[in-house]
What does this fold into?
Amino acid sequence: MNSETFVGMSESNAASIRMNGFTYMLASTALLAIIAFADVNAIQFPLTMGVIGTGLYGMLTFDFGMQTAMGLRDSMPDEIASTKAGQDAQKAPFAMYRVLNAVILILIAVAQITVIY
It folds into this structure.
């Protein structure tokens, strides 16, 4: 892969991760507002499904971004890999990022569901 293609794909992946994170935060904030200010007794089940769906969306989209970043790291051109930034990217603990993201989003969903019930 040439460096222009690599940089373009990296920028696209970063933009995708940012937009997916923003979408997740908007959905979580909306759910939080509903949980905090609405009478949720009548809508417990649909609200729980919304929490689960939002959590899955967050986990899957972030995981996709990390998988793409790992693929890009493995396809990094030599001219970028030889720089300090390239060497640091080779050491990035993507597996830890993926696990940490899943754990945090599961904890958020469990906390929301606990408040609903």
